[in-house]
Amino acid sequence: MTTSPEILVTNDDGIDSPGIRALADGLSDVGNVTVVAPRNNKSATGRAMSSEVAVDEHELGYAIDGTPSDCVVAGLEALGPYPDIVVAGVNEGANLGMYVLGRSGTVSAAVEAAFFGVPAIASSLFLTSEHFGEPTDPSDYQRPVDATAYLVEHAMDAGVFEHADYLNVNAPHPGADATGEMVVTRPSHGYDMTAVRNGETITLHDRMWDQMGDGDIPDPQGTDRRAVVDGHVSVSPLTAPHTTEHHEALDGLAETY
């Protein structure tokens, strides 16, 4: 772009998380940053939407008593300036795999922007279970920040968003033996959720995280999860609207209804 882009930054870990501070700082070298983020942690809220939210000024921008999707709508429609691109993150923990896309508040913020026709990037940091909770300083997020800033600076002029509505970026954790390579991926279809009843409670567990921690995953080359486990920065170009597949079996049922 010939002028510095207007960048709306949000997240789902909350406005006081180190990841969003690192992202806002890193993107300030690329464009004009406005932060509109949840006041508290709103992880795994998907595209949950409120009808009314409180807003307060914060040292980074605006704190919203709502979800990431609330923040995107509020930022675009009420708080301004209207952005050239929306960036969500950096999330503490990866957002990998097809099944995570609708669950993640970080990714959902990017999807919300895409429905407005605004290019968007979701940015996340992969952490194994042994490292989860360790990054407490903005400097720990340098890998995803660098990758995201690079994409914000170059992707729009390169025509990337003529083919993708949003990009899902995942970078290796700080202690990983990373390659530094950025690879274009597709979301993995791997899925391994379990549930165990313990009296009056049920424990739900995503066993894919265990496999990622061991480095023993079934995902083939070209998938987002395989790329990050192998130490690469994964970038998945995605579209927001759900696709439809017309076929004779359903057409026949509709005709005989």
SSE diagram, text form:
Layout: E1 6-10, H1 18-27, E2 32-38, E3 55-57, E4 61-64, H2 68-79, E5 85-92, H3 105-115, E6 120-125, H4 142-154, E7 166-171, E8 182-184, E9 193-198, E10 201-206, H5 208-214, H6 224-229, E11 233-238, H7 248-256
Parallel strand pairs: 1-2, 1-5, 2-4, 5-6, 6-7, 8-11
Antiparallel strand pairs: 3-4, 7-11, 9-10
Helix pairs in contact: 1-4, 2-3
Question: Would you kindly provide a written description of the structure presented here, covering whatever features stand out?
Answer:
The chain is α/β, with parallel strands linked by helices and 257 residues long. It has one domain (6-188, 217-256): Stationary-phase Survival Protein Sure Homolog, Chain: A (3-Layer(aba) Sandwich). It contains seven helices and eleven strands. The chain has helices at 18-27, 68-79, 105-115, 142-154, 208-214, 224-229, 248-256; strands at residues 6-10, 32-38, 55-57, 61-64, 85-92, 120-125, 166-171, 182-184, 193-198, 201-206, 233-238. The strands form two sheets. It has a nine-stranded mixed β-sheet, sandwiched between helices. The chain has a two-stranded antiparallel sheet with strand order 9-10. The mean pLDDT is 91. It comes from Halobacterium bonnevillei.
